[in-house]
Design a protein that fits this description.
Strand content: 5-15%
Shape: globular
Distance between the termini: 68 Å
CATH architecture of one domain: 3-Layer(aba) Sandwich
Radius of gyration: 25 Å
CATH topology of one domain: Rossmann fold
Bound molecules: zinc ion
């Protein structure tokens, strides 16, 4: 077509469309990428070389071998405890070149997001050892995206957590816009630029409309760019109507003349919303749930998508590529063995099988999207949507929204379903919490390993405010530790003692089930106290040898009870404060107790 990357709609229906991204890499046209498409989210900077990363190693191998277009974000390495030197190594070559040796050539497009959401609650952390400096973050992130070889990139953005106060939201939206315009300018100077998606944010449908209108006013002369809708992840499953509403806000605001050359990506919201989003006109989506489910050995049922535990399956009646080449018996045999970091008796590591489950789950999500794509092609997307809505799981709120906002859908749906429950509208400005989580909503993955450098375990109780780090109790401890130990604070592994889930290592603080649950452990709740203690004891049995020092700092009675049970089983567990006057929260903030904590920690954290 032209000498730059472009998107073009090929089939436009009343609802839904088919199109193609015509991408160029180093000036050479790639085969058109047909949309709607679902990208698997992957991590590839997981270790000091291409041979690490557990499940990711196997996932990448498969995805690259089959040339599946993928999505990643450049700050994903923050989850893997890598040093600046290691990131220097990853920046020497593109991802494609780096992995050519172990995995063979990979020609499919790679979409590289900025990872702005990683910085959401971590504005204090310094990334300068990784070549990303505060003052030049947008440029540095762009550089990183370019060196890693993104064919498609999204500009550094500042996502809006639900309930964020207006003034802060406006500041963040302005910064996101400013970065986007800057990236447009930088790419315009390049010989062979990647294809750009501008990240869009807003606190409501009208808000995001306004944002998109500003984009088009400013970028009227840019031939083709995409729009990527962000800030949706925390709403997903909690407020699906708001997810759909904001996406429609983006669609509303695109000028008619630009519509068939502007692709829309929805960040972080796929799963059971996928067919609905494609119906509304979203051109691409990405999934992390395929791998999250696999980590708890959850296998998507080929027809119902219901998640089943792999050890409970009698057979895998799935015709997907992955299941055809995998033996259920072999997989179950491996999972039943206790070892995690050695080969199982099948000759393979467990992560190999975790990857297989993930890949199957991904295939199922693709299948669900493809059904809608075929319906769009055949011009019966409305019928396909109604059929889907009538039997899909977990889409009640999204369907209610469709009933309210799409008359054709409502009319057709009412013929199939006698009555539909009225949607309860949620307050968008409140912190969105759910009481529906159970102890099983979160568990530490079976293959979990504590970060290498963290050699002191410190457990403190959970808090109402999420993520925990933002709560008063956690901030106070954090400040105290920083002023006492400075740099050396990084050796402390904070594990929150959740009344609902038991131990929650700090790396899991932003998981959906951890961010959105609301639970208060009462001293009377003996069963839950026992459950939390059991989980904590299990954690220590597995990982105790990793730590030099294991400390709990807890004053409330219920949480003390949990840790007293832990103390009984683990003699070296230190429960602080040693002598709280009362067992209640107010004691938590007393200097005398915090000083005692610092003193005990000093034994392990200051040079002798
Ligand atoms: Zn399968």
């Amino acid at each position: 077509m032209t000498d730059t990357s472009v998107y073009q709609t090929t089939v436009q229906r009343k609802a839904g469309r088919i199109g193609a991204l015509h991408l160029r890499r180093n000036g050479i046209a790639l085969p058109p990428l047909s949309t709607p498409i679902l990208y698997p989210v992957v991590a590839f900077m997981t270790s000091t070389n291409t041979n690490g990363g557990g499940i990711w190693k196997y996932l990448l191998k498969d995805v690259m071998k089959h040339n599946v277009p993928m999505l990643s974000q450049v700050l994903h390495f923050l989850d893997f405890n890598l040093t600046g030197n290691t990131i220097g190594y990853w920046r020497e070559k593109s991802m494609r070149e780096r992995y050519r040796d172990p995995n063979g050539p990979y020609d499919a497009p790679m979409f590289l997001d900025s990872g702005g959401f990683k910085l959401l609650y971590n504005t204090g952390i310094s990334l300068s050892e990784f070549g990303i400096h505060k003052e030049t973050a947008a440029d540095d992130i762009l550089d990183f995206q370019l060196t890693l070889g993104g064919d498609i990139i999204a500009s550094l953005d500042y996502p809006l957590p639900p309930g964020l106060v207006r003034s802060e939201a406006e500041t963040r939206m302005n910064r996101s816009l400013k970065n986007a315009f800057r990236v447009v300018e930088k790419l315009a100077e390049m010989e062979n630029p990647p294809y750009l998606y501008i990240c869009c944010h807003g606190q409501s449908r009208e808000d995001i409309q306004d944002y998109v209108m500003q984009v088009f006013e400013r970028l009227a002369d840019v031939p083709s760019f995409g729009l990527a809708v962000g800030s949706l992840v925390p709403l997903r499953g909690e407020n699906d109507s708001e997810v759909l509403s904001r996406i429609c806000g983006v669609l509303d605001a695109i000028p008619e003349s630009a519509r068939d050359r502007t692709p829309i990506h929805a960040f972080g919201v796929s799963g059971n919303l996928t067919p609905i989003l494609a119906y509304l006109g979203v051109d691409s989506l990405d999934s992390t749930s395929y791998v999250q489910a696999a980590r708890s050995q959850s296998y998507a049922h080929p027809d119902t998508q219901k998640k089943l535990k792999i050890l409970e399956l009698d057979s895998m009646e799935c015709t997907c590529r992955v299941c055809q080449e995998t033996s259920l018996e072999e997989m179950q045999q491996a999972f039943m063995e206790p070892k995690s970091y050695r080969r199982t008796s099948t000759g393979k590591y467990k992560s190999y099988y975790y990857a297989k489950i993930a890949l199957h789950n991904f295939e199922m999500e693709v299948k669900s999207l493809d059904n809608m794509v075929q319906a769009i092609e055949a011009d019966n997307s409305l019928e396909a949507l109604v059929n889907y809505a009538a039997k899909a799981r977990g889409v009640r709120e999204a369907v209610s929204w469709l009933v309210e906002n799409n008359h054709e859908f409502a009319a057709k749906m009412s013929k199939m379903v006698v009555s539909f429950p009225k949607r309860i509208t949620t307050q968008p400005t409140k912190q969105i919490l759910s009481l529906n989580y159970t102890p099983d909503s979160f568990s530490i993955p079976l293959d979990y390993q504590p970060p290498t450098e963290k050699r002191v375990l410190l457990t403190i109780p959970c808090a109402g405010k999420k993520p925990y780090s933002l709560s008063r109790t956690h901030s106070i401890v954090n400040d105290k530790l920083r002023s006492a130990f400075g740099e050396n604070q990084r050796f402390i592994h904070k594990i929150t003692l959740s009344g609902l889930y038991g131990p929650v290592p700090e790396e899991f603080e932003s998981e959906e089930a951890v961010v959105h649950y609301d639970f208060q452990l009462l001293p009377q709740n003996a069963a839950q106290i026992q459950l939390s203690a059991d989980r904590f004891n299990t954690y220590l049995n597995q990982h105790k040898t990793h730590y030099e020092l294991i400390i709990g700092y807890v004053t409330s009675r219920a949480y003390r009870k949990v840790l007293e049970l832990v103390e009984k089983q683990h003699q070296d567990f230190i429960l602080l404060p040693t002598k709280p006057k009362q067992k209640r929260l107010s004691e938590f903030f007393r200097h005398i107790h915090l000083d005692e904590l610092i003193e005990i920690l000093s034994n392990a954290l200051t040079a002798n």
